[in-house]
């Protein structure tokens, strides 16, 4: 019993002392070094290619590190819960952003449909199943998928987009 208490105490101490710290590690790859940075209790991580042109930014702290495109803007009043933003050497970029909002699924889908239509992106899927709705559109290397699920005080939303 005593070893278990010591191990648990040591684990708690390591967790507490690691809180709020930032770190940066460099990993060798066949194409050069990849830099991985973490911060904010490891709730934010950035990975950069050797030449800095390809990046991935992961947030579980509610931050969005990229500008959302006109065809998939962040819903007004959204509370971002997590995001993954990336770009590659060819200029292709995209994101997956999860958030909650005090609006119905139909209001959220109508908002994104308006922006998708304004961008001239044809819809490839518009579906409703129970309390969930999904809208998918894309054309000319631009795509977006919006999934919305009803919650007690609004909706949980996931927007995934990509473009050149």
Distance between the termini: 58 Å
The H-and-E topology, N to C, reads as HEEEEEEHEEEE
CATH topology of the largest domain: Double Stranded RNA Binding Domain
State the low-pLDDT regions, or none: 1-19
Structural class determined from secondary elements: alpha+beta
Helical percentage: 10-25%
Contiguous helical run count: 2
The rounded Rg comes to 20 Å
Strand percentage lies at over 45%
Can you give the mean pLDDT? 78
- So what's the CATH class of the largest domain? Alpha Beta
Number of strands: 10
How can the largest sheet be summarized? Answer: 10 strands, antiparallel
Write the layout of secondary structure elements.
Layout: H1 2-18, E1 23-29, E2 32-39, E3 44-48, E4 55-59, E5 79-87, E6 93-101, H2 105-118, E7 123-129, E8 132-139, E9 142-151, E10 154-163
Antiparallel strand pairs: 1-2, 2-3, 3-4, 4-5, 5-6, 6-10, 7-8, 8-9, 9-10
Architecture overview:
The protein is an alpha+beta fold. The chain has two domains: 1-50, no CATH class; 53-164, 2-Layer Sandwich (Double Stranded RNA Binding Domain). It has helices spanning 2-18, 105-118; strands at 23-29, 32-39, 44-48, 55-59, 79-87, 93-101, 123-129, 132-139, 142-151, 154-163. It has a ten-stranded antiparallel beta sheet with strand order 1-2-3-4-5-6-10-9-8-7, with helices on one face. It is flat.
Features:
alpha+beta, Double Stranded RNA Binding Domain, ten-stranded antiparallel β-sheet
Task: Please provide a brief summary of the model.
The protein is of the alpha+beta class. The chain has helices spanning 2-18, 105-118; strands at residues 23-29, 32-39, 44-48, 55-59, 79-87, 93-101, 123-129, 132-139, 142-151, 154-163. Residues 1-19 have low confidence and may be disordered.
